[in-house]
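step: validate -> pass
step: tokenize input -> pass
step: predict -> running
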Amino acid sequence: MKLKTALKNGRIFTDYEILHDHVLLLDGDRITGIVKAQQIPSGYNEIDVKGANICPGLIDLQIYGTQNDLFSADLTSETLHNIENNLLKQGCTSFNLTLATNTLEVFKKAISVFKQSNPRVAIGLHLEGPFLNAQKRGAHPADLICEATIPLLEDLLNGNEGVVNMMTVAPELTSEICLKFLQDKGVLITAGHSAATFEQATKSFNHGVSAVTHLWNAMSGLHHREVGLPGATFNHDHVCASIIVDGIHVDFQAVKLSKRLLGERLFLITDAVGSSDQGIYQHILKDDHYVLPDGTLSGSAMSMLKSINNCVNKIGIPLDESIRMATLYPARLLKRGDIGVLSAGAIANVLVFDHDFQVQQVVFQGELLF
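step: predict -> pass
step: emit ->
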């Protein structure tokens, strides 16, 4: 039920402030504002969060599934909504449902199912492939990787504007004409699974590529004679990069170095998948991450809140900055001012979690869920 709600007695994390003795006001599906504890207007249902942390709902721009639900293996509305519900329980209130390299037929069906499902938590599809570099394919099947052409992109995207809002490509194999086509379709282009040199990557950043997919993983290395895609990312003025902070995909010391070099341009993703024993991607849970049947590292089994936890307790990034890496910065990359913030007029997506990083409350579009 959507009511006038006042969340009080917590630490409120705004864009760049941590407020004590203040109250977050929600009216319907929007944030009304933040007032001092003594100034709660009449008519608000007051909820005491007992000293917990109050922040915007988390944003994950790269996730494939949760638990036993993998979207690419079961392209149904039921799977999509299961993933949405599972993520809401984790405090993730906006995400890009991601598909790794697959046939164009599977991509088309995924787009169709997404449109028919009227998702509320998923804000778009992120296609990670098939326009990648097979040399850096990781868990992606080499025989399905291909080069982008305008006819292929038209076949995939025409009529589906606003559904596919993000695409990972290998910039060294993607023409400027194709990059321009994707830009014109409103697709956020990110570089990944790439063997790009410094020069190739930098050129792509100046021709429409806005971000880098899972920094360090499946890309050219940082070598003192050729700094590759990581070096181009560090040296650029505005390109952003996502990173997986599970301590498995990327060593925590590499995350610390990346944060020092990129600052606000580094943001968090989970790259999480779901267990699956069918289809192209058969993910097997191994302790705290997933592998393919041959042992190849595939996705994480991590939540966004766990990623924030790791940033704080494994790397030493302050909590407020770690929260921004999972809220403000991905929202900024998407050019969305209505999510990832607690500003007046923003969508009332809110996470309340305790000092042990356990979810206490989730508000989604003004509705108190937990």
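step: describe -> The radius of gyration is 20 Å.
step: cleanup -> pass
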